[in-house]
Write a structure and sequence with these properties.
The protein is about 65% helix and about 0% strand. It has 15 helices and no strands. The two termini are about 40 Å apart.
Length: about 290
C-alpha cells in the first residue's frame, strides 16, 4: 500500500492535533507524546514509498498531504522528511496536476502546503496552482470540491442553492490576504514545450477552470508549466486506457527532455508492465505445450 491508510491519516492524526491544541502550553502530555512517537514511526515506515500517481485514490493523496503536515509539524517542531525533498515535491506536483484537472480544490489546497511546509520556494507548477485556486475563489466566492458543479449551483436559488453548496463543497478557503505570485518561476523552461503538449489536451472533454488561468499566461509562463500539462495529459490517457496515447506522450516528452518527472517515470513503468503481461499471455500456451 502506498503511503498510509487515510482512515489512519484523517482520524487518528486529527485526534492528536486536537489534543495538542488543548494542551499547547504543556510539554508533558502523555497522550501527545504517545501520538508523536506513533506518528513518527508510521510516517517513516509507511510513507517512505512512492505514491501511485495514476492508480491511487483521493484517500492516498490525503494521506500524503497529512504525512507532510505532521512531519513538518507546521514548522513548529519538524522532523526529518522520510524521503528527499525533491522527490516529495515531484510527487506533490504530479497529484496537484490531477487535482486541478478534476477541479478538486480541497486536495489542491492541501497539496500547495507542501512547498511552505518543506521550506521550499514555489515551483512554477505550485505558483500556477495557487493562481488557479485564487481565480476560482474570486469568481465564485469559495473553493468548490470535486463534487460541486458550478453550472448546477448557478441554476439553483434560495434554500436549494444553500443545500447543494453545503452537500458538495468542502469548507476550504484561501487566506483573505493571499496574493498569487505575479510571475511564475522559470525552471528549465523548454521553449515551445507547452504548444507541443496542448494538442494532447484537446480531447473533446469539458473545459476546466485551470484552462482559463492558463490562457492568460504569457508564452514563457506557459512553457514554465509544461511539465504540469504533460502530467495532466498522461493522467487523462491512463484514465481512459489510451496506452497508445501514453506512448506518444512519452515520445514527445523524450524529445523535449522532460522524462525526469515522477509521472513520466511511472507512465513508462506502466507501459513496461502491460507489455510484459501481454507477452506472458502469449507465451503461456507454448510453455504448457512444452511441459506436456
Amino acid at each position: 500500500m502506498h503511503c498510509f491508510s487515510a482512515a489512519f491519516g484523517r482520524r487518528r492524526m486529527r485526534g492528536a492535533s486536537a489534543c495538542r491544541t488543548e494542551c499547547w502550553k504543556s510539554s508533558g502530555c502523555a497522550v501527545c507524546s504517545g501520538y508523536q512517537r506513533l506518528l513518527r514511526h508510521d510516517i517513516a515506515a509507511r510513507c517512505n514509498h512512492p505514491m501511485d500517481l495514476f492508480g491511487g485514490t483521493r484517500e492516498d493523496i490525503y494521506a500524503f498531504t497529512h504525512a507532510v503536515m505532521y512531519t513538518a509539524d507546521f514548522n513548529i517542531r519538524p522532523t526529518p522528511l522520510p524521503r528527499s525533498r525533491e522527490v516529495l515535491l515531484g510527487e506533490a506536483e504530479a497529484v496537484l496536476a490531477r487535482a486541478l484537472d478534476s477541479e478538486d480544490y480541497d486536495i489542491g489546497g492541501e497539496l500547495l502546503l507542501t512547498w511552505p511546509l518543506t521550506g521550499t520556494t514555489w515551483s512554477a507548477a505550485a505558483a500556477f496552482g495557487f493562481r488557479v485556486l485564487a481565480d476560482v475563489e474570486d469568481q465564485v466566492g469559495f473553493l468548490p470540491a470535486a463534487a460541486t458543479r458550478l453550472d448546477r449551483l448557478n441554476a439553483l436559488q434560495g434554500e436549494a442553492r444553500g443545500e447543494y453548496l453545503t452537500a458538495t463543497a468542502y469548507p476550504a478557503a484561501l487566506a483573505p490576504d493571499r496574493e498569487p505570485p505575479q510571475r511564475l518561476p522559470f525552471e528549465d523552461v523548454v521553449p515551445g514545450s507547452a504548444a507541443a503538449i496542448l494538442p494532447f489536451l484537446d480531447d473533446g472533454s469539458r473545459r476546466r477552470h485551470w484552462q482559463d488561468t492558463f490562457d492568460r499566461l504569457s508564452v514563457t509562463d506557459r512553457d514554465a508549466v509544461s511539465r504540469l500539462l504533460l502530467t495532466i495529459a498522461l493522467h487523462r490517457r491512463v484514465a481512459t486506457h489510451d496506452f497508445a496515447g501514453v506512448a506518444k506522450l512519452l515520445e514527445l516528452a523524450m524529445s523535449l527532455g522532460m522524462t525526469d518527472s515522477p509521472a513520466a517515470s511511472q507512465a513508462a513503468e506502466l507501459l513496461d508492465r502491460l507489455i510484459l503481461a501481454h507477452m506472458g499471455r502469449r507465451a503461456t500456451p507454448a510453455r504448457a505445450l512444452a511441459a506436456a
